[in-house]
């Protein structure tokens, strides 16, 4: 006879309340996931609001260009029927549509926004639309809008004007990116190099990368010995030195930058000392401010702690016995340092290098104050287009290209060094 207490293997295992164990485990796992999601939700919202959404908005503004199509709707429709590759002016219908659009936008003075946008591409368009805004609404029952518009301004009789308007009629454009690369879209729709006097952005990108790399190298040269001292000195002495390293963080960035202006200017402290020591003549004072030298010096000082701290955190974890063992085995202290100690600090060098390089690329306050014309970065021109010229499309395009360069350099670093080798301690 079978034992009555034997459990049927086909019967599902249940909990005390009769719920199948599998269902109960899935429910508990779901609750844990919901708790985890609730904990990270504030961080995700914060990152979305402060990072993802602004970058997405920047990407969109780099290709969005609705001004012409918004304020010249009738003209845009009629220009689609006109062949811009010819050297002939558009027909009467296009001139009439332009006159109607100008009359519609003249009341609220919105039509000048078109002139301001097109003036980025062809100087003189802003004055053309301002003049037309005043005179075109006075046109009443004219026999020919073409003749009347050309009488208002001769530029309406130039094919390039209409080619330019048609080129920038679409709501999406690549013109901002071409401009950010020192290229331009001609009124005929071709892409060509800007005039030599207007080619500034490629030079600025190169200067930004070059000076940022040089600043990173200078912080490494100056910061490595300091980090080594911090890691090897007795605890009490090391803490005092660490406080001195952190001291600049408690001082305003503006104060630190303007202090360098007082030190580096031609009548500043450093030049006075050099003249007093008869190292230079009073007439041949050094020019160390409002140029690339001023930018490098000031930014190296400001960003030095960002190199020292990662190096220090890595060096602190390296056992001191490594060096003693190498020396005891016959290695010269110099060789022991470079063959045993220094390779172990590579993760700190990588972390500090990336941190300083990326921060320096985006700096614009210090270069604006001490950089002059030869020490400014591309970020200064991005800030200019955002706050002064209000050319947000070009600012967005410059920012996107700068972001792309940083990502490319990051990928190269990962391929050459390996991002896994970057540590903060």
Task: Set down the secondary structure blueprint.
Elements: H1 21-61, H2 67-71, H3 73-79, H4 92-106, H5 112-119, H6 125-135, H7 145-152, H8 159-167, H9 175-180, E1 183-185, E2 191-193, H10 201-232, H11 235-246, H12 253-264, H13 269-276, H14 292-315, H15 321-328, H16 333-344, H17 346-361, H18 365-370, H19 378-387, H20 392-416
Antiparallel strand pairs: 1-2
Helix pairs in contact: 1-20, 3-4, 4-6, 5-6, 10-11, 10-14, 10-17, 12-14, 14-17, 15-16, 19-20
Q: What would you note in describing this structure?
A:
The protein has 20 helices and two strands. The chain is about 65% helix and about 0% strand. The radius of gyration is 33 Å and the shape is flat. It is an all-alpha fold and about 425 residues long. The protein has a two-stranded antiparallel ribbon with strand order 1-2.
Give structural attributes.
mainly alpha, 425 residues, MetI-like fold, two-stranded antiparallel sheet, 1% strand, disordered N terminus
Q: In short, what is this structure?
A:
This protein has 425 residues and is mainly alpha-helical. It is 65% helix and 1% strand.
